């Protein structure tokens, strides 16, 4: 097992990738995200033996955004079982952008996978809970278990801001409601979804989630099983086939580590027999992936030959 | 000018087309429509000289549904001018079904024309009025002017029923709100739109609207101008290129009369130098057009060589 | 009947629209077309009583290009009957560009109409004749009849040049061959099609074809029927719904005269109770329509209130 | 390392999956394939230490069909380098069927990946060689190296039959020729491609190719490097993201082993730290994958926990 990555190595890598932060742009569709500092870079590794190493602005908290799709999928699968979930959301990757709607018009009109927005909205709709707050409460409890950190909550300003401007997600939800893929109130599902996306973590907490997934769903420190192994595997599989928006294929070629990115500029990576990795760098490329996150994971994969392929 | 179509000729035609009523199906997506009697057939012609002839169940009132798109377009054009309207809604026909959304994903993301649902919703959004009731009130006043009949209102049961189940139209509206094609409240626009679709008329009132359009926008009896001539022409043009859903092209070939159909089973036709024609027969073909309406207009066109082409 | 358009009026209009020639670009995908002079403008009107008026560079000969689609459709309908033709090619307009292929992937996989390339290629495939030369020979004979001018032939340089570079049309043909819409040799059909597109006329000859169509298919001078009336009508209907590429809808709104354009910069228009109109001006807008042709027909339609709507 | 799968275990698995052969259908688009016997099942495993185990009708030879896409990709990458190849063919998975063309109409108009037909045709076009026979000769030499078996050739009947009926592939090639993705003669590229698809192997030879890929591109027995390690990895990555047509995503979830299928009913799988696996069973599901192959790999993966995720 590789374990020789020290903080000074991580610091050096951060220095190497820092210039790329200016090749991209911070997400600007809501004020809270647009205020992010493109120079706030951070990285953390959580090894399978419980050791952790970190570098950069590790105290910066950021919202999960699309990374939350992996976690809500795990919970929805635990709540409903595989067949219920995959009757409503497909398993196939797609070359379309995350916000795409036109595929829903094809038969059968279900979202191609749970990592595009339509699929993720349907997944959140399936999480057990009578109210948005109950759903989000259950998701937060789940994340508290995943991280052994009960302080994690969601950023209300971000959640409110996204809720107010989420016209496209409302469009996707109503489309799916028409086709009986989602049930109940669109506004309530969207409320839960925008709060889910606004859950705030730092790289250390995120790397620990990655380590738990790499450990087959068991917490590394307590040995407690949080996610059944086969469901943790499903999450990692989707991270490979559809985790990096419509750059998932090229990321698999160039990096080959299961990873999920979010428009806050964060990336969650999980590698069996290694552990969890989290990177933060809010400058995004045109696909919505963290420029620095991609570079850093590419360096790491190439240096230690970490591709799963 | 042709004027030799008598009531007994119309009755005979109705008898000829009656059997076709069983080739289609009454719209069943809301209870009020599904209760329509497929044998309730009616036809009316309003000549340019003011004479009118009618046959069948002419007292049956039906909701305008998509026929209202022509009328709301006229009002929106009068309210906003051509360039404002056509900056937001295109002029091109499409081979897509009326409910289609995927075209909106193409650049520029505006509805291809005002006769598909997306375009018609955007048109209703443009009608002046601070509230849905004000918009609908103005539209009803406009229809009162068009028909010289102030008794026309909307069917609340149909409006409410359509409003409650209009998930797809909400999806289209939110999609367009995301792309700044519509402004304001989606629910309010939908409220206005479903009331607009639920406006109730009989074939005689509808034929008079057709006659007014054929007369270049002037009321035949009073000579009063209700719609500017160039806007009446625009309406008739869209009736030809996109009036009969994705059967508009074949209808133009087979019949060649400007016409707009609605899923209540009604058809409004307008022919320069002839007058207005309205047909009612609630049994629909798979495109959503009245089976009997199509047959009857085909007979009429062929018998009197009425195609504009 | 309007007949007061003199040569000096036409000259004046040409002067008015001449500056617009520089708003577009001459087709440049083959050398022969790219050598066209954007200042070579010409217009001709052929009235229903046989009189004709013309202005500009009327001796310039140009290739029919897509205008030939109307003529080949008439011949294919006469050769095969309506039901055979429309079993293989649809009647619906489309908002897609003329070269589009993706619609063919939808069910049923037949071209939406005979004015887009896929549909026109299928139509040429249906023209009777054992060899490309026999098909083209029959089409030329037909055009000789339409114009009463046996000198019309095709431009071999243009035909050869288009044949050699027609990869997209080969793609469409093979796609349709896969789906049994076309039969026989793709190369032979393409040979016939590129020769058909390369048939050369001047505006006077073209205006006469327009007059014959306006006259219901009968030659104006001899009274001889060349095209059955209902088939001439079908041609004019397609000219309205799909004659001007994906600007057909806006052309119908703004001009309202049945017309078909070609990328050589020519437009054929046909108006019942008026006659035929032909315009030539090789500078094209981004849709592929003659900039000057559009302007001139718009002036003509507005000045004399010629819209059929 | 797992090595306890004996021939009797394999035989037992074949017996278990045999009934599923009747759930699918043998490919019937060419006579040679339609004559396959759905009961001819075979499986072979080639371990990384060089040992091999096999069961069923292992002497049956079948054509590679789409499995050849992985091998031609390796050769094209060795011939041209990564940047040349991926400038012309993308890296992204797609939810579309293998024969799909409409994506090419999107910008940029290059095939989404090398495993769909369009991408594979472009790859074959890039293989060095002045003639189809030179390309195919080089590909066969490469396969001789991969298998250490110089007897492997292609089935002329299958190649000829596919060549004659490959209208859709011609359509794709001409489309790409129009967009400068492929160069040279379409017929010659198709000739090379259909011969490539018609290369015949048995499961033992195929499993050895899988083992070489699992061994990072080095022959297991001689230690000779045949494919650079990073290119072998690229091949395995595409096998995961797009190897099983539009069922790649669900196969990754359910099985999680890099694999490529062909419509002959064969599957090539390659698993690092394990070896190569080949299955043959000509009965196909509606996606074009071997019913028995999928079942057998699912059993194997679940029994030995082989998913890479």
Automatic annotation (TrEMBL), chains A, B, C, D:
Q: What name appears for this protein in its UniProt entry?
A: Glutaminase
Binding-site positions, substrate:
66, 117, 162, 169, 193, 245, 263
Q: Which organism is it from?
A: Halobacillus faecis
Which reaction equation describes what this protein catalyses?
L-glutamine + H2O = L-glutamate + NH4(+)
Name of the gene this protein is made from? glsA_2
One Pfam family hit: Glutaminase
**Single GO biological process annotation from the record:** glutamate biosynthetic process
Q: What is its EC number?
A: 3.5.1.2
Q: Which InterPro entries match?
A: Beta-lactam/transpept-like (IPR012338), Glutaminase (IPR015868)
Keywords from the UniProt entry: Acetylation, Hydrolase
Quaternary data: Homotetramer.
Membrane-spanning intervals of the chain: none
Its top-level enzyme class, in one word, is hydrolase
- Keyword Acetylation tagged: yes
GO MF, any single term:
glutaminase activity
